[in-house]
Amino acid sequence: MNTQTESKKEKIVIIGGGFAGLNLIKYLDRNKFEIVLVDRHNYHSFPPLFYQIASSGLDPSSICFPLRRELYRRLDGKGVSLSMGDAKCIDANRKVVITDQEEIHYDKVIIAIGTGNNFFNMPELIEDVFTIKSAPQAIRCRNQILYNLEEAAITKDREKRRKLLTFVVVGGGPTGVEIAGALGEMKRYVLPREYPSIPQDDFRILLVEAAPKLLATMSERASADVQKYLKHLLVEVKTDVGMNSYKEGIVKLADGQSIHADTVIWTAGVTGLPLPILGADVQRVRGNRIEVDGCNAVKGVSDIYAVGDICLMPEVDKAFPGGHPQLAQVAIQQSRLLAKNLNKGTQKLFVYNDKGTMATVGRNRAVCDLGRMHLSGFPAWFIWMFIHLISILGMRNKISVLVNWIWAYFSYQSSLRILIRPDKYPVKNRWREK
Fold first, then answer.
1. What is the pLDDT of residues 162-194, one digit of tens each?
2. Within 34-124, where are the H helices?
3. What's the predicted TM-score (pTM) here?
């Protein structure tokens, strides 16, 4: 009888174990559906705090949580299974998801793979810049920052030291201002104490934004406040100017300026991750996103849905006629509604409940736009900290992050500024090796 019951269940394959994927698993009815989660990693991570890994503020394990641990109550015959693999494509005719490990049959498939870095038709940057869109990328960025600091501390050549300690952050969105602010705190408070041989003036942080203001999606007041905070942290800001190229350790800006910089941190934009759908005429639209209807069904094919950053839902929500912002709250709300629609067989249209946006620039420095209300300084920083803390999975992780934040708040010290790298793949200075 159990076998007959199981055979009546529809099989839903969810591709991506981020905010959307986990919320789908949480809200889908496991009495109706057999659920398979596919992800290239065996852990869920918390992207809003990747910059803190890159700046040695948090340990990677504090914001990464094993998927099997999160799902263990739902695994082992209870309607949910995990398949670690890199999804290569979906065959809509055969109704299978093809990964680098296996083929998985589905009755319905939900794409929740998110986005990657957008290099704006400059593919050569992929090998040369540092990015923080994943935990491994953030660790690589952290190691480069620490390596450059240690090498700069012993070099006698000032020009070499200045190049080592010139950090150009490209992109003035939340991630850009957050990593620039973290580097600014390092320059202002950590450098004089832990690296006394390095003159503070030799440490340069430049934030470059092509738009007329920082935090383009937030209010004018938020942008002005953030620029003031960054100036206090000794960060140079250039707005309304883009980056044309980065070759041989030289950044060339659109205004003609050239800057010798050993490290460029790219946060300038995102693009939908590729996942071909075979046997269907599915078009990618703005930002390489998949166009969906008001119920997150992919247009041009049946039984395939997309949620979160990877999808674009134009002309459905009157408040967002051009599509919703690529934020965690959108992914969470879309996945919860889709789960309820699938459970009940309904087609309720998605309407985004905008809970506001926020960004932090360091201790006691943050901005929040909550509807018509704007907060800055300590109140905004406290709200930012509280919201992010409760959003992290696992009590151990929450406690670990809180302890690190409290310790850093009162001391500006961190036990995480340690340079650990695999011997087989050491951090190297690419430009000076040539």
1. 999 999 999 999 999 999 999 999 999 999 999
2. 50-54, 60-63, 67-71
3. 0.89
